[in-house]
Structure to design on (213 residues):
């Protein structure tokens, strides 16, 4: 009877662990940098210019800033140059990150020349700055891009919409837990990523908004 009880508790523990791991994987996909950046830019674009033109700017910006780099990663995975779509191996991250930075640089130039909403330009500048900072760290240490992007997005939304959006802050902890749970990052890498993303994105977003008037 005692053995049966131990086996039953072990089975329950295993089932719970498996369920938590599945949840962590879902969180990792839903709060991955590509979808978070796309949603953030659409929200900022609509906030800056709640018109069809503003929405069009948001769609184009989300496509270039988010979809194109992600498609490059998927191409690398299909050709077996990258291990997975989250680029789990640090030494494989330099080229995809360089492609993302180049895409954002071109996008930023197009937005400036095309007269895009100023707050949207500021958001792209903030994302680009945070990506450059994260890339420099990644050359030596596997900092968490997931945590950095989500933290940066939350800070920018708080700046744009006010303190009420601090209600989104638990998402940073959630994605951090998920990245550690699936063993893609350590707690230190998650905390560092979140701190870097929040500080750089927030500072550049504020400065760019002020500079653009």
């Amino acid at each position: 009877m005692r053995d049966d009880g131990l086996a039953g508790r072990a089975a329950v523990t295993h089932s719970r662990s498996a369920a938590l791991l599945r949840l962590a994987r879902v969180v990792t996909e839903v709060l991955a940098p590509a979808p978070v950046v796309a949603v953030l830019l659409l929200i900022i674009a609509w906030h800056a210019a709640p018109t069809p033109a503003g929405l069009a700017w948001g769609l184009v910006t989300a496509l270039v800033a988010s979809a194109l780099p992600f498609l490059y990663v998927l191409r690398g995975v299909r050709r077996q140059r990258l291990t997975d779509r989250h680029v789990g191996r640090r030494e494989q991250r330099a080229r995809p990150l360089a492609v993302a930075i180049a895409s954002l640089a071109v996008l930023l130039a197009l937005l400036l020349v095309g007269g895009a909403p100023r707050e949207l330009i500021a958001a792209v500048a903030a994302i680009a700055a945070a990506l450059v900072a994260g890339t420099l760290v990644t050359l030596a240490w596997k900092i968490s891009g997931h945590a950095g992007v989500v933290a940066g997005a939350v800070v920018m939304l708080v700046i744009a919409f006010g303190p009420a959006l601090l209600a989104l802050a638990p998402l940073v902890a959630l994605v951090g837990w998920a990245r550690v749970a699936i063993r893609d990052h350590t707690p230190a890498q998650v905390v560092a990523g979140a701190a870097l993303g929040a500080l750089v994105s927030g500072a550049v977003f504020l400065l760019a908004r002020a500079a653009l008037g």
